[in-house]
Write a structure and sequence with these properties.
five-stranded parallel beta sheet; binds BIS(adenosine)-5'-tetraphosphate; Rossmann fold; 9 helices; alpha/beta
Length: about 180
């Protein structure tokens, strides 16, 4: 199975949910920029203070800030495989990531795109009830996704690395779909 991965998809598609399951089952390192940013917010660091307001508006945190966090984590990726969840979120982040992976000698093997209708995304996020999960903010996050993150779909498709997976249905069935897509069976 391919084990150096990136998860792409709209907010609420289940990137975090599926990433945690896949990493647990296959001993891969899970690196979620959303979780790392929320940890900074919870710890009340300067970085967290800067990120909090941006996240609660449904905007993307600045590339400089996210890259600083990611760079600090790359050294600890190990060689058992890894999954970058929610990063990169735009083309600039993707372009910054590539040389960093080359530098550590661990190129990306596949990009998993989780696809889901907006109505289901909205429903999932409203029931999740995180601080940044109210209807207006979610709508804005979906706009930001279309504008900034969705161009990555073509970016990775052109590189031949994109694998699309239908993210509708129960959690276990979606994990099975992802695993099949990554093993090519
Ligand atoms: P993230 O933490 O990445 O979260 P997300 O995109 O909102 O959700 P995800 O797709 O992981 O869905 P989840 O599994 O939780 O981003 C949050 C914010 O952080 C961003 O808006 C941005 O401000 C900032 N950020 C993060 N990375 C950044 C970057 N690289 N650059 C700049 N800013 C960045 O699933 C959603 C809900 O659905 C959960 O409640 C889950 O239990 C449920 N669910 C999942 N699968 C389901 C299923 N199959 N059926 C029913 N429910 C399901």
């Amino acid at each position: 199975m391919k084990k150096r991965l990136l998860f792409l998809g709209p907010p609420g598609a289940g990137k975090g949910t599926q990433a945690a399951r896949l990493c647990e089952q296959h001993g891969m390192k899970h690196l979620s920029t959303g979780d790392l940013l929320r940890a900074e917010v919870a710890a009340g660091t300067d970085l967290g203070k800067e990120a909090k307001a941006v996240m609660n508006r449904g905007e993307l945190v600045s590339d400089a800030l996210v890259l600083a966090i990611v760079k600090g984590q790359l050294g600890a990726l190990g060689d058992g495989g890894w999954l970058l969840d929610g990063f990169p979120r735009n083309v600039a982040q993707a372009e910054a990531l590539e040389p960093l992976l080359t530098e550590i000698g661990q190129p990306l093997e596949a990009v998993v795109l989780l696809e889901l209708d907006d109505a289901v995304l909205m429903e999932r996020m409203l029931s999740r009830g995180r601080e940044d999960d109210n209807e207006d903010v979610i709508r804005h996050r979906l706009e930001v996704y279309r504008d900034k993150t969705a161009p990555l779909i073509d970016h990775y498709r052109q590189k031949g690395q994109l694998i699309s997976v239908e993210a509708q249905g129960n959690i276990e069935a979606i994990t099975d779909r992802i695993q099949q897509a990554l093993t090519g069976s």
